[in-house]
Design a protein that fits this description.
The complex is a heterotrimer of chains A (389), B (449) and C (88). Chain A has 389 residues and is α/β, with parallel strands linked by helices. Chain A folds into two domains: 5-80 and 152-224 and 327-388, FAD/NAD(P)-binding domain; 93-146 and 225-324, D-Amino Acid Oxidase, Chain A, domain 2 (2-Layer Sandwich). Chain A has helices spanning 12-23, 57-80, 100-115, 128-131, 153-166, 211-217, 249-254, 292-305, 351-367, 383-388; strands spanning 5-8, 28-32, 47-48, 93-97, 121-123, 141-145, 149-150, 170-173, 177-182, 188-193, 196-199, 202-205, 225-236, 244-247, 262-269, 274-281, 313-324, 331-334, 341-345. In chain A, the strands form four sheets. Chain A has an eight-stranded mixed sheet with strand order 5-6-4-14-15-16-13-17. In chain A, strands 8-2-1-12-19-18 form a six-stranded mixed sheet, sandwiched between helices. A three-stranded antiparallel sheet of chain A has the order 9-10-11, with no helix packed on it. The two termini of chain A are 34 Å apart. Chain B has three domains: 4-113 and 263-325, FAD/NAD(P)-binding domain, CATH 3.50.50; 117-260, FAD/NAD(P)-binding domain; 357-427, Orthogonal Bundle (Arc Repressor Mutant, subunit A). In chain B, strand 1, helix 1 (12-23) and strand 2 (27-31) form a beta-alpha-beta unit. The longest helix of chain B has 20 residues, at 327-346. Chain B is globular. The termini of chain C are far apart. Chain C is built from one helix and eight strands. In chain C, strand 3 and strand 4 (39-40) form a beta hairpin. Chain C is mostly beta strands. Chain C has one helix spanning 18-24; strands at 2-5, 8-11, 31-32, 39-40, 53-56, 59-63, 74-76, 78-79. Classes of the chains: A alpha/beta (389), B alpha/beta (449), C mainly beta (88). Chain A binds chain B through residues 34-38, 42, 83, 152-155, 158-159, 161-162, 171, 173-174, 232, 234-236, 272, 274, 277, 289-292, 295-296, 299-300, 302-303, 309-319, and chain B through 75, 77-78, 84, 86, 93-95, 101, 271, 367, 380-385, 387-388, 391-392, 394, 397-399, 401, 419-420, 429-431, 434-438, 440-443. Strand 17 (313-324) of chain A pairs antiparallel with strand 23 (435-436) of chain B. Chain C: Keywords: Oxidoreductase. Chain C: Pfam families: Fer2_4.
Amino acid sequence: MHSDVVVVGAGVIGAACAHALSVAGVRVTVLDRGAPASATTASGEGNVLVSDKAPGPELDLAMASRLRWPSLIASLREDLGAGAEIEWEAKGGLVVATTEAAAQPLLDFAAAQRAVGVEACAVPAERARDFEPHLTPSVTAAVHYPQDAQLQPVLAACALLAAVRKRGGTVRSGVAVSGVDTDAAGRVRAVRTSDGEVACGAVINACGPWSGAFSTAAGAPIAILPRRGIVLVTAALPATIRHKVYDADYVGAVASGDADLQTSSVVESTPAGPVLIGSSRQRVGFTDHLEVAVLRELARKAVALFPILAEVPVMRAYGGFRPYAPDHLPVIGPDPRVPGLWHATGHEGAGIGLAAATGRLMAELLTGAQPHLDPAPFRVDRPALMEAA
Amino acid sequence: MTRRVVVVGAGPAGVSAALAAADAGAQVTLVDSAPTVGGQFHRQPAGAGPDKVPGGSRLVEHPRVRLLTDTVVWTVEPLHSGHLVHVRTGQADGPGRHGEALTADALVLATGAYDRALPFPGWDLPGVVTAGAAQALAKGQGIAIGDRVLVAGTGPFLLPVAQSLVGVGAQVVEVLEANGGIRGWTPSALVAGRGKLAELAGYARLLATHRVPYRTRRTVIAAHGEDRVTSVTTAALDREWRVKPGTERRLPVDAVCVGFGFTPQLELAVSARCELVDGFVEVTPTQETSVPGVFAAGELTGIGGADLAAAEGTIAGACAAGQAIPEAALRKARRGRTFAAGLANAYPVRPGWRTWPADDTLVCRCEEVTLGALRTAARERDALGVRSLKLTSRVGLGLCQGRVCGRNAAELAAGYTGGHYDPSDTARRPIAAPLRLGELAEDPEKENT
Amino acid sequence: MNVTVDGEPQPARAGQTVAALLLAAARVSWRDTRAGGRPRGLFCGIGVCFDCLVVVNGIPDVRACQRVVADGDEIRTQHGAELPEARS
């Protein structure tokens, strides 16, 4: 039988791993230097997207995760009752091109996705406003993705952690982990924390953008870098935007490694009323000064998509850091250099959506069960991760 | 090159800072959201000229002062050296205001403070307002908030509010001071505040003339009514501000004014990364914050009233313009701080207020989050920090962005979970004033050329 | 000045805030909240609390305590969260 697992990081990825392990009967302890779900998870939009991913391993993970979320929510509801409310909305996505040049690439992208099982329905440009009545009339192409969904990330992470506690696990905030202790054979036997040692048979690095630093402290560095994203929040509105609506440029921005600012307007209503507009992507290290140029660009694109938003108040902007690997694939699996050290990180801006399948895959790998999808593309000993570190 | 100094806030601190900086040779821009200078303390009747405000006439005539009224600062952006102050000028709250980005070699923040309101059953009924609201309405618009008005809270500010209400024809039924009043003053505060004492004695005489009872260790614990307040329950408090059972009394009123001290307007200071100590901006003797080139004066650095604010403004303005500390202002500021410390000591907010709200009392007025919902989020959702508390309960996520409820929610949650709720986290508002999305989308640089 | 409140003409003075105008017209509330439908009017009076929101000339979310009335203003009650009115 496995001894205890320590999960470092109480964001949505750590919470999903801890939850899946708890369900599998493993006793887990989740440690976070701050409060649960208060860093990267608190600065996301709650995207559960298949629409933005090209065919490949990340799309496979996204499809598995999209399939997994509803049953995960059902399980949370059984454990927690009303406490499982996470504002899940299977609202679908609408991706629009607003220039002639962007139209064909969008349709081609959708065709390639359809070939691997994504529901992607081309919508005639003149019918796009049947989907979104407030949309700009200058649409050149549109694709409807019924599988795209949304949830509220902090509620989701907190519900997963509450279920972990209910199943006998431990969640401790304000406990910083500074490294791991190994036995004579080099295997992890404990983590060192600001509150003493915590013995364990395995440790999962779910530190998000700070995973690189933790992996180094644990003696097995991997290259995980921060990428900054900023989201604008409007005042509460009546239900105005029905889908997750975004500009086709987004497709290019996600897969890119350029340090320069990239923005695309992903615009969506939330059940609480405000409209979220995001997101920008910048490689600026951990610099978190707000830049007006970035906010302006987000606003400009949102107003271009939905002209009615021009007279709506913006009340908040929030930013955060997303963890990415140089090859833009998540990292899920054991570290061959330090037995007992595992990583679950590198999900970039998609961690909320990918959390459900990531947690499940991690639990399968840790307990020796048959994995529900091929873990090889996410393995830790990829050259891109080891060499750059 | 001439130093460019931007002063935010045209109350006593900001006006003094602008004059001192301009006198020292700097080119000054003074920004305020109101149509005229004066701030809350020297608020003038609508349409009055600036000459009624101390320093006002000199300000408008000063060749090196540009006065930008009706102007909100919505964010401050750091530059390689100095700051860029992003403003919109025009009718509140837009759209169609004019945008501008002001370059500041030095920035003086004099954004002041606003009344702290504590939640109690019925505090969201129309007719329940802050003491500052009643004051602004009386002084600025010549209107009484009601005919029969209760004034309750803590601190000497309640007295001038009652006076203003009487001045516009309201009947003030009672003034309730939750602390012990003048009996709580330390001897050093009494000495430092001699001038203030005479002023307070004046208010007391006026209230006596109008037969307004002033009671200590008593407050309002509930407001009643259907769609507006029609009566209140008041009660005696013990030293921790818990209600003394059996002392409740019902009073018919049509308005209630509450003020439990003041909360500094911290968002610009927080955005600029100024260090805080005990919820106020930390400053050096030159009024410079922990961020070089950013100065703070007035209530941002501690609640101390108009005289202290003006002295601090003079120091901040002179030093922002590159001059040495003006000695006379420094002496005044020192004396003012002794008095301010005495005030803070005599009029604290005691933790017993947390027993006033009921489970269905709103803590957050914007998002309509009740005390019960806040407690559930904190305890059952593991909301152990400000960010997770906000996102699990929605407390502080409305248009006021936690200005009214942030501190109250943080203190309540800390009592439930023992988590760490940094009050400065509730003041993190990178967009300091809402603007319309179309205004944000405009590039003032391009428009103005 | 000619100003209307919920369609009714209302006398207004230069420099008057929308909140003062409404209070002078014996209105104590002019918004209802979006979840509970609770009536709201003036609260902080100095632009901090955003409780006194009102619709002016088709634009919602205007603070009545900060907005100064202008000739021809059409002021109306705000019901919960509203979208700006489409203008021709």
